[in-house]
Amino acid sequence: MGVEFKHQCPHCLSIAAGFRTHDYWHNQLGSTRAYLIARCGVCDKGIILDVQNKNGTTIADPTQYSYSFQDNLRIISCWPEVQVTIPADLPGNVANFYTQGLENLAGARWDAAGAMFRKTLDVATKIIAPSEKNLTLYKRIEKLVSDNLLTEAMGAWSHEIRIDGNDAVHDEDPETEDDAGALQKFCEAFLTYAFSLPSMVLRNREKRDAGENP
Fold first, then answer.
1. Would 8 be classed as within a structural domain?
2. Going by C-beta distance under 8 Å and a sequence separation of 6 or more, which residues neighbour residue 29?
3. Alpha-carbon distance 141 to 156, whole Å?
4. Which region holds residue 181: left if phi is over 0, alpha if psi is between -120 and 50, else beta?
5. Helix (H), strand (E), coil (C) string for 92-112
6. Within this chain, do residues 31 and 55 fall inside the same structural domain, yes or no?
7. Is the peptide bond before 130 cis (omega within 30 degrees of 0)?
8. What range defines the domain where residue 45 resides?
9. pLDDT digits over 104-163, tens only?
10. What is the pLDDT of residues 28-65, one digit of tens each?
11. 116 & 198 share domain
C-alpha cells in the first residue's frame, strides 16, 4: 500500500528509480502541499519531496492510499538535489558516456563504471583525431602523443583508463571501488585537458579580439 513513483535518485543516480512513500506531513502553507519521505528501490536511500496537488485539493495520505503520483502530484523541490558534475564543453556523446560512468560509479557498479569510462576515452580520441579512428585505442593514443595532440603525461593517463577499462570488461576479478574511483579521476582529467581547456582558451581569445577590434 502507498504511493509509488519514478524519479532520478540523487544518491545512486539511477535515472528512473522506483520510489515508495514511507511518511508525509502537510505543508504549513496548506493541505494542498505536503512533504513526502520516500525510499529508492535501487540503493534503499531516502529523499524528501515538497509536492503540490495538481487538482488544488487536500493531498490524501500517500502511505495509506494508492493513487497515481504523476496524475495527482507536482514536485516543487527534492532534497537532496541530483548533482552530476561533468567537465565543460564536452561533445554530446562523450558527455553521455561519461555521465553513464558516473551513474554506475554512484550506484556501486564498479565494472560497468570502468567499461563506460573506457568507452568515453575511446569516443573522445576518435573525435580528437577522426583520421585515426580505425586504429586500436592503444595506437590511437600513441599517435595523439606523437602528433603533440596529447602530452606524454596525458598519454600515460589515457593508457591507465584504457588498461583499467579493459580489465573491467575482460578480467575475472571484479573491479573495486578504488579502481573505479581512480579511473573516474583519470577520465575527468583527460576530458578537461582535451575539451574544456581548449574551449576556455578560444573563448578568452575571442573576447580579447573583440575588445581590440570592436
1. yes
2. none
3. 9
4. alpha
5. HHHHHHHHHHHHHHHCCCHHH
6. yes
7. no
8. 4-79
9. 888 888 889 988 998 998 999 999 989 888 988 888 888 888 988 888 888 877 777 767
10. 888 999 999 999 999 999 999 999 999 999 999 999 98
11. yes
